[in-house]
Amino acid sequence: MALASGSSIRTKSAYSDQKDTVMAKARFSRFDCSPGCSVEAAVGLIDGKWKSVILFHLLSGTLRFGEIRRQVPNVTPRTLTNQLRELEEDGLVDRKVYAQVPPKVEYSLSPLGRSMEPILLALKTWGDANLNLYGKPRPAVAGDGSDEAASATSRNAPA
């Protein structure tokens, strides 16, 4: 997905069911559209704090704010609100507001957001395989070989 300065994307408005055209955010205006531009644009859409995790959880289906918050317990309500707004503005998330008391708002992946599924799953696979490289051991699952790998590593570690 290459976005040039002044280009537009289609997204649902936060306040209506109509499609609105919005200008690409300023953060996309600096792309020079060299061969790596589309990679930078794609990463730019999910590089915000918690965005990729939010998108990953929305792969399972429609969720309300509180449900997302429970699945991502370390995110503050303000940060979650801001990230959901940006994901909606970028056309990756659809927000549906129900006219009822108390208010009910649901978030789901838009077709564009759903198209990121293979990317998110690849990131999860890579992260699961390499998390231990960054100081956080991967939780051992019986039969996955991680317990043997951990004991082999500790035997070979310098004293």
Automatic annotation (TrEMBL):
Region (Disordered): 137-159
Keyword Transcription found: yes
Name under which the protein is recorded: Transcriptional regulator, HxlR family
Organism encoding this protein: Consotaella salsifontis
DNA-binding listed as a keyword: yes
GO biological process, one term: regulation of DNA-templated transcription
Molecular function GO labels: DNA binding
InterPro entries: ArsR-like_HTH, HTH_HxlR, WH-like_DNA-bd_sf, WH_DNA-bd_sf
Positions of the HTH hxlR-type domain: 37-135
Keywords: DNA-binding, Transcription, Transcription regulation
PROSITE patterns: HTH_HXLR
Gene3D superfamilies reported in the protein's UniProt record: Winged helix-like DNA-binding domain superfamily/Winged helix DNA-binding domain
Stored PANTHER family: TRANSCRIPTIONAL REGULATOR, TRANSCRIPTIONAL REGULATOR, MARR FAMILY
